[in-house]
Design brief:
405 residues, eight-stranded mixed sheet, 2 domains, Urease, subunit C, domain 1, alpha/beta, TIM Barrel
């Protein structure tokens, strides 16, 4: 494979913005990046001019249950492939397959299938498909008082033995565990899980401030879908939110869809934590990328109307959000593009410890690239296992581009 030089109107690394930027790609990796005037192309380079589009790293989603009509807990390679294909069409090039509270055997089966696909990447594809870089287990060690739509009959007390069962099912590919730190046994599980290499996330929790702080001291370092499924903030009893907002050791994910969290609260989170500590996530169900209808979320049935996912009782049940829409939402709040893009790319990659290869455009990084138009819509995608990008809007800027029907 030769060198591909992609020239764009703007390029975000994401921390640096480069006008008239060029990206050199060779063998699925970024070879160089910089202003076009400052780069000397090798003699064997082929050039692709996509001005006026903007280039950015592919998005990384650490909390996604499904997309494209399928759910990760179907425990089928075909379902995971459909999820990853739909996610890629919206700019996501790496994700954690997320599994929720369910019967233990269903959790184990779902984690096992996701683990197999993590260890065996998708073959080189003509069309973009997101890489599964691990699994996220949301539950079953959660609070019944803040369970949301998680089935209460399958909630269990935190247990090192049970967690070991889940780890064995993944062969080391379980990366993120969301649990309620106030439960009996949770602190021991957090400490043990941290030593085992897990990222411990506070979520679906009714923890007090003191309980949350104790868990952070033991190794919890992340918070799932902040504001949702956790004890509300009160100025005299700040609870888990008080700990998350105040402690710089904790990163925070947010579902930025205008439904799960109001705009002022999203702004508050970003100002309190700083944009470098906030991650955009979708918490998407099988409805992501699909029309209104009835879909699955793990063992549950969810109804989607006007793009909002709810269970039969009317409770929010995940989302139909995609990462490009989450990016557009925080940009509308006035966040600078570099900061907003980092929340969808570099920040989640850093959380997972993969930022050397994912979430950035820099020499040695994987060639995971999203092409964005002036309205921040995804106009194309390239992954490190593709020799050429797929571009969806050829008529707007260049008829020579390859179009995907």
């Amino acid at each position: 494979m030769g060198v591909l030089a992609i020239r764009a109107g703007r390029l975000f690394t994401p921390t640096e913005e480069i006008e008239d930027g060029t990206l050199l790609i060779e063998d699925g990796c970024v070879r160089a990046v910089g202003p076009r005037a400052g780069l000397v192309l090798p003699p064997n380079a082929s050039e692709l001019d996509v001005r006026p589009l903007t280039l950015a790293p592919g998005f990384v989603d650490v909390h996604i249950h499904g997309a494209g009509g399928h759910d990760a807990m179907e425990a089928r390679v075909e379902a995971l492939q459909a999820i990853c294909s739909m996610a890629a069409r919206h700019g996501t090039t790496a994700l954690l397959a997320t599994v929720m509270t369910a019967p233990p055997e269903q959790i184990v089966r779902s984690l096992s299938v996701a683990a197999a696909q993590t260890r065996t990447p998708w073959p080189a594809e003509a069309e973009p498909i997101a890489a599964i870089v691990g699994a996220h287990l949301e539950g079953p060690f959660i609070s019944a008082a803040r369970a949301g739509v998680h089935p209460p009959e399958w909630i269990v007390a935190p247990s090192i033995g049970r967690l070991q069962q889940f780890l064995d099912a993944t062969g080391g590919t379980l990366r993120l565990l969301t649990l309620a730190p106030e439960l009996e046994g949770a602190l021991e599980v957090i400490e043990w899980g941290r030593r085992a290499g897990l990222i411990l996330s506070l979520g679906h929790t009714d923890a007090t401030y003191e309980q949350a702080c104790a868990s952070i001291e033991r190794g919890a370092s992340h918070a799932a879908h902040v504001f949702n499924a956790m004890r509300p903030f009160h100025h005299r009893q700040t609870g888990v939110l008080g700990a998350v907002l105040n402690d710089p050791r904790v990163t925070a994910e947010v579902i930025a869809d205008g439904v799960h969290v109001d705009a002022p609260a999203v702004r508050l989170l970003i100002r309190a934590k700083g944009p470098e500590a906030v991650l955009l996530v979708t918490d998407a169900t099988a409805a992501a990328g699909m029309p209104d209808g009835v879909y699955r979320l793990g063992p549950l049935e969810v109804v989607v109307r006007d793009g909002v996912c709810r269970d039969k009782a009317g409770r929010l049940a995940g989302s139909s959000l995609t990462m490009d829409r989450a990016l557009q939402y925080v940009l509308r709040l006035g966040l600078p593009p570099a900061q907003a893009l980092a929340m969808a790319t570099l920040n989640p990659a850093r959380l997972l410890g993969i930022s050397q290869h994912k979430g950035r455009l820099a020499p040695g990084a994987d060639a995971d690239v999203v092409f964005l138009d002036a309205d921040w819509n995804v106009a194309g995608v390239m992954t490190c296992r593709m020799s050429q990008p797929v571009l969806w809007q050829p008529a707007r800027v260049g008829a020579e581009w390859r179009a995907n029907p």
